[in-house]
Amino acid sequence: MHIFFKAALALLLPLQFLGCSATQQPAQVKHIANTYVDSVQHQIAIRRLSDFLHQQDLSEAQKAELFFRRGLLYDEIGLMHLSYFDMLQAIENNPTLVEAYNILGIYYVRQNEFGRAYEAFDSVLELKADHNYAYFNRAIALYYGERPQLALKDFESFYQQDSNDPYRLMWWYFAELAVEQRNPDSQPVALQNLKNRSALLAKNDWGKALIKLYTQELTPEQLLQLAATGNDSEQMLNEKLCEAYFYIAKYYAQLGDKVTAEFYFKAAISTHVYQFVEFRYAQMELARLSNNSTLSADTTEATDI
Q1: Residue 243 CA: distances (Å) to CA of 112, 231, 240, 247
Q2: Contact by Cβ (8 Å): 75, 103
Q3: Burial class (CB in 10 A: 0-12, 13-18, 19+), 81
Q4: Where does it live in the cell (predicted)?
Q5: Which of 48, 55, 209, 257 is most buried, with most CB under 10 Å away?
């Protein structure tokens, strides 16, 4: 799922098999994902924007727009640090450039700088209270910042903007489940809420298929089979696989199968669909798995002592 608008100029070469041996991956994974992204058009566009930025007669507003556009291009080919510096330059030239704050917030989340992320998304909403994705991005920041209870309100606000978007249901469910896991005495309502809300979805499309994994209506193998069918292009296949891998990984993580979850998060990263939420946060999910494993090991050692 895209962060706030559809990516442009993406050219994908023929797909290649994931580079994992049979002993390293679950036996059921037989699907393929692109492991190389042709960035030639992005590089050309970046060079042109850079040339424009060297002109002496640009207004601050024009500079801000050029830095912002170049930053987006950097972001689309995975150069998030260069994108970050351009977004800072964009805001320096135009402190009201809403989308630049939005991109900065996403960057800070991925760097685990949650306080700065909250400030960036707050700035978006101060400048544009009805911004479509600021609530979602701030909710994700709160979710990964270990504040799921606070994330619930933003996820609900995002859902109210479009109750037919299955991805909004999915992430709201993740936050509700996190709240339940923090409060063992609370009523387990997250899964039932997901079922109730998904029953109201107008379309039975790919997005809803992702939800069916969690409602036990599809197995991971069946979801991957669906991802491999009905695609108009290799890019569409790659995007669907990125999503499928990520949500399958979350599914296995919930089951406590960290080995399989880790494999699928790495598979999502291997698709290089840089603009998707699922790609952006797969690395954070891997870190969380690693941290949980470390905590478990420390607890075991303390018990043995």
Answers
A1: 22, 14, 5, 6
A2: yes
A3: exposed
A4: Cell membrane
A5: 209
Domain presence at residue 144: no
Mean pLDDT of the chain: 86
Residue 188: which pLDDT band, with cuts at 50, 70 and 90? confident
pLDDT of residue 231: 92
In Å, how far are 27, 78, 226, 272, 293 from 31, measured between CA atoms?
11, 23, 11, 16, 28
pLDDT of 12 reads 26
Distance (Å, whole) CA 55 – CA 52: 6
Q: Is residue 299 part of a domain?
A: yes
Q: Has residue 99 been placed in a domain?
A: no
Task: Render the burial of 107-132: b for 16+ CB within 10 Å, e for the rest.
Answer: bbbbeebbeebbebbebbbeeeeebe
**Secondary structure (3-state) at 5:** coil
Q: Is residue 87 part of a domain?
A: no
